[in-house]
Specification:
With 84 residues, the protein is an all-alpha fold. 82% of the residues lie in helices and 0% in strands. The longest helix is centred in the last third of the chain and has 23 residues, at 60-82.
Length: 84
Amino acid sequence: MATTTIIGLIAACLTTFAFLPQTLQVIRTKETKNISLNMYIAMTAGVILWLIYGILLSEIPIIIANLVTLVFSVIILVLKLKYK
């Protein structure tokens, strides 16, 4: 595996799983008043575009990272709308 791919996978893991604590907290507490709806709408749209970009380039680190981030981001976004 190329060094650049390894660096990409490590970066992908770190930035992707940075969303995990927030996702778990929102699921557990159902508290979303301090979460910006506009930020999560923009974030989710950006992640979708990054995912498309990764697919077009066939870049596994970009695809995996953004697929997982999309799941976390959508969960938070849906719960933000549900518990608004």
